[in-house]
Amino acid sequence: MARSRSSSSSTTWRYINPAYYLKRPKRLALLFIAFVSVSFVFWDRQTLVREHEEELWKLKEEVLQLQNQLEELKHDDIPVHKTNLTTMNIDDLPIDPIEIQRREKVKDAMIHAWTSYEKYAWGHDELQSKPLKAVFFGQPQSKNGVDSFGGLGATLIDSLDTLYIMGLHEQFQKAREWVVTSLDFNKNYDASVFETTIRVVGGLLSAYDLSGDNVFLEKAKDIADRLLPAWDTPSGIPYNIINLVNGNAHNPGWTGGDSILADSGTEQLEFIALSQRTGDPKYQQKVFVENVIRELNKTFPADGLLPIYINPHKGTTSYSTITFGAMGDSFYEYLLKVWIQGNKTAAVKHYREMWETSMKGLLSLVRRTEPSSFAYISEKIGSSLIDKMDELACFAPGMIALGSSGYGPGESSKFLSLAEELAWTCYNFYQSTPTKLAGENYFFHSGQDMTVGTSWNILRPETVESLFYLWRLTGNKTYQDWGWNIFQAFEKNSRVEAGYVGLKDVSTLIVNTGVKDNMMQSFFLAETLKYLYLLFSPPSLISLDEWVFNTEAHPLRIVSRVAPGEGSKQHKATNIRVRARREGRFGKA
Ligand code: DMJ
């Protein structure tokens, strides 16, 4: 046996000995043929793999194109229009598969936020994820609803139009059922006139404009009627708080009895829209919301900048901060947007004039940092400038870009470049922190560019709002990339098992993410996710020619303006078309 094993192993060895082949050419030829055959098989397989890969890649492309077509079909029932505001026609650009993927991710985020709200806080104002133990990353959270706005279902109403625009119709229908069966404004609650208007009246009107469903308009009337007595002051400047049952109105104690500028001047869009849609002029007529602007116009300063406190009895401003951030911001925003809502006609010319005056004032507040020359909008008290800017003021680049087209060519490009510069600053509010999320406000010290002041982040939308406008108005895809980076930072830091929460401190990382707070703000669903979704959508989806966004990102359809007393005639004209015939990619209405 030993001998036979050794003889078989010597037979094997001789096949790898070159002499075995060299001695006989026939063997050499056979070896060559074997080598060529093996190489051919190997090459053939490689080619097959490559061909399959190419095929797979083509299929993926096709899937993306089909997904896009599907998106278009889903949006078929949304009134859409091709924008003329753009300096270039973005609709003519080829479909970008990256854009579609990003849009889908934002939609996933909305589904996650909405499903969490549905599961844990249905019908409440906001979803809270409260830490059960000591505050630490990853601790268990209680998941419950809180009624920060008096139990009006703020998140649900704020989300209606976002759901609709994203094509989440099942969720929209379920929310609609809640509005029909459970939305009750008869609450003995001292509500904020401003918050209730921008979230609830605005959200309902937008849902009405998109769906044409009368239920939303009826509810909008109900809540607006409860808010109206707030304007019953000697000057017409409203009180900022009102009881929803008895109509008793007052101002918060901490303002010393004054009304707040933004709270008093951010109702015009919604109430004018309500008059247009109901045919009832009472919401917009002079004793109510429009009188505020007339009153303020009487003593409007040369720089168009108003301090944040106004006396509702005398209609005069009090010595206080001038800012495009908290408590000032949307007053300026609405001067521009009411002009747009009114089709830029003579009837609303004074709004544009006041806005342009305020823009002169804004220019006087613009400063630049050292060493990097970031432009920022400072604040002012008396004659002193304060080197501080709120993230809230980051809506301004978008507003300036939106208003820039109303100037002549020279001024227009000057304002557009300022908007772009300010957006770069706001983007850097995010990029300059370890979490890549912005703090609530920033200070600017010589030689240090920007430093975080108040360091929380509560999922605010203002920067992505401006990126959305700049993308729409310039076609520059950089703004999409910036928005995508911000979105990813929200995903990384703020996404939790039950929805999304803010951060307590954007400057501190624990296990690679920021320390969380416990609140999913309703404006995250109303604004942040909606603007991000639209940032990655064709511009014809909610065209800026046909829609104007209220300050809570609720799109209101632009219709011809109603003059007081012309209510019923106007009502016919405002019969909102909900099914537009599609033309082109997303269509023209
Ligand atoms: C929103 O409610 C509105 O955008 C408002 O005008 C300002 N604050 C929040 C979002 O930050």
UniProtKB/TrEMBL annotation:
Binding site for Ca(2+): 551
GO terms under biological process: carbohydrate metabolic process; N-glycan processing
Record-level Gene Ontology MF annotations: calcium ion binding; mannosyl-oligosaccharide 1,2-alpha-mannosidase activity
GO cellular component: endoplasmic reticulum; Golgi membrane
Primary localization: membrane
Reaction(s) catalysed (UniProt annotation): N(4)-(alpha-D-Man-(1->2)-alpha-D-Man-(1->2)-alpha-D-Man-(1->3)-[alpha-D-Man-(1->2)-alpha-D-Man-(1->3)-[alpha-D-Man-(1->2)-alpha-D-Man-(1->6)]-alpha-D-Man-(1->6)]-beta-D-Man-(1->4)-beta-D-GlcNAc-(1->4)-beta-D-GlcNAc)-L-asparaginyl-[protein] (N-glucan mannose isomer 9A1,2,3B1,2,3) + 4 H2O = N(4)-(alpha-D-Man-(1->3)-[alpha-D-Man-(1->3)-[alpha-D-Man-(1->6)]-alpha-D-Man-(1->6)]-beta-D-Man-(1->4)-beta-D-GlcNAc-(1->4)-beta-D-GlcNAc)-L-asparaginyl-[protein] (N-glucan mannose isomer 5A1,2) + 4 beta-D-mannose; N(4)-(alpha-D-Man-(1->2)-alpha-D-Man-(1->2)-alpha-D-Man-(1->3)-[alpha-D-Man-(1->3)-[alpha-D-Man-(1->2)-alpha-D-Man-(1->6)]-alpha-D-Man-(1->6)]-beta-D-Man-(1->4)-beta-D-GlcNAc-(1->4)-beta-D-GlcNAc)-L-asparaginyl-[protein] (N-glucan mannose isomer 8A1,2,3B1,3) + 3 H2O = N(4)-(alpha-D-Man-(1->3)-[alpha-D-Man-(1->3)-[alpha-D-Man-(1->6)]-alpha-D-Man-(1->6)]-beta-D-Man-(1->4)-beta-D-GlcNAc-(1->4)-beta-D-GlcNAc)-L-asparaginyl-[protein] (N-glucan mannose isomer 5A1,2) + 3 beta-D-mannose
Keyword DNA-binding attached: no
Highest taxon, organism lineage: Eukaryota
Catalytic activity, EC: 3.2.1.-
Localization per Swiss-Prot or TrEMBL: Endomembrane system; Golgi apparatus membrane
One protein family per Pfam: Glyco_hydro_47
Topology within the bilayer: Single-pass type II membrane protein; Single-pass membrane protein
Entry keywords, A to Z: Calcium, Coiled coil, Disulfide bond, Glycoprotein, Glycosidase, Golgi apparatus, Hydrolase, Magnesium, Manganese, Membrane, Metal-binding, Signal-anchor, Transmembrane, Transmembrane helix
Active-site residues annotated for this sequence: 195 (proton donor), 329, 440 (proton donor), 462
Coiled coil: 49-76
Pathway entry: Protein modification; protein glycosylation
Transmembrane region(s): 28-43
Cofactor(s) this protein cannot do without: Mn(2+); Mg(2+); Ca(2+)
Protein family according to the UniProt entry: Belongs to the glycosyl hydrolase 47 family.
Task performed by this protein: Class I alpha-mannosidase essential for early N-glycan processing. Progressively trims alpha-1,2-linked mannose residues. Produces Man(5)GlcNAc(2) from Man(8)GlcNAc(2), but only Man(6)GlcNAc(2) from Man(9)GlcNAc(2). Has difficulty acting on the terminal mannose of the b-branch. Involved in root development and cell wall biosynthesis.
Record-linked PANTHER family: MANNOSYL-OLIGOSACCHARIDE ALPHA-1,2-MANNOSIDASE IA-RELATED, MANNOSYL-OLIGOSACCHARIDE ALPHA-1,2-MANNOSIDASE-RELATED
Protein name in the entry: alpha-1,2-Mannosidase
Species assigned in the record: Cynara cardunculus var. scolymus (Globe artichoke)
